[in-house]
Structures are given as C-alpha cells and as structure tokens.
Amino acid sequence: MSLPDWVHVRLGDRADVLGALLYGSRALGGAGPGSDIDLLLIVAGERAPGPEAWHGPDGGQADVHFTTLTGWREMPERRGWWTFGYANGRPVYDPGGVVARGLEALRVPPPSHRAAGRDMLDGYLNATYRSVKAWRRGDELGARLQATLGLSYLLDGLFRLAGTWTPYWDRLEGYWERLAPLGLDVGALRAEVEAVSRTPADAAQLALYRRISGWMRAHDLGSILDAWDGPFHNTMRS
C-alpha cells in the first residue's frame, strides 16, 4: 500500500482533517530502514489535538502532529526549526487543496529572511576572527567551537541571500547547488567548508575567508568587511 493510500485509509471518516503533509526524511529522500513517518495534519476548528503516534504501513512509527487551518495559513510568518522540513514536504492527502496552497506560500521566504543574510555574514566574520586568534594562542577547543559557529553563520547567510530556506545541516547533501546563483564556486566552497570542519588551523580558515571576502567585495557586500577595524584585517591577512 502506498503512503498516500495508507494515510487515506488511516484517516477513515475523520471529517475534521482537511489535509495531510508528509515531511522529514521520508519527504526529503533520506529515509533509511525503520525511519519514522512524519505527518502534519491540518484540522478544522479553533484548537488542534496533541501529537499522536500511529503504527505505519511498514511496521514503523508515524509521528503525527496537528495544526489548525489558521495555524497552517500563518506558518510562513511563524518561522522556526520546522520551517525547512515543512517547506520541503509534500501533500499525501489534500482533497481541497489546502496543503498545496499553504506550501506555495511557505516555500517562498519573506524579504526579511534574505535581508538577515548580511547579519549572518557579519557573524561569520566575528566567529572566524575569534577562532583564528584562539588557535594562535593554543586554545584548540575554543578555536574549534568558534569555527563551527562561524560555518553555521556562513552557510545560513548564504542560503538566505540565495532566497531559499536554510537546510538542516544533517540534510545538506543535495542542497549545495542552491547556492550556485550567488556566483560562488560551490564545489570549492564545499571543499573549504569541509576542511575547516576537520581542523580550525590557520591555513584552512584563511583559505575559506579569502574566498568569502573576495566574493563579498564583488557582490556589494564589502561594507560588512569595511566595518571591521584594523586588528581584524591584520589578523586575517597574516
């Protein structure tokens, strides 16, 4: 039995359910043996029921969450960790088109999401600066933690500037190419990000910084760099 057929049968005669969204690994294409089924049910009325656990069609568990129709329509403005998962989900029960219409709105990030990309890049510069200084004074743990934070800021900022929702880091595979419209060499960027994730040593961090700072100056983002004072630039050049 297909998943949509199973959902339809499982819902039975529940007239309160207006639609069902499949999200998580089953929707993203990364499901493995025993992966849970993640469902969001849109229901009529002013209050949504609490979460439920169902037995899935393949013997696994289905984690079922609920939202009201109003809550679903407001989802593009109520952003959180769930946004990427929902935006990349797919309808498995949608007799009235409620899920499809909501997805159409949810998949386009608002202008404020893209605008925040500049702040994320500034956060990357700060974290990288701190990481390089920590490494040079022998604080390897501090350097690693700041480098990890910097990579998160950087990738979040780039995905925002590309006009797309930032993926979960454990689902990054398959989403790198969404950065191509920014004019970055995505293959080289990925290699340098992976190098920094392995070691926060100067060479790895500065190679990535040179690529990003050059790209920033070529794309009208140089003012973010110029706001930093002399010690920052001296450290990042040496």
Automatic annotation (TrEMBL):
Stretches assigned to coiled coil: none
InterPro entries: NT_sf, Polymerase_NTP_transf_dom
Molecular-function annotations in GO: nucleotidyltransferase activity
Listed CDD domains: NT_KNTase_like
Domain Polymerase nucleotidyl transferase: 17-46
A Pfam family matched in the record: NTP_transf_2
Protein name: Polymerase nucleotidyl transferase domain-containing protein
Organism name: Deinococcus aerius
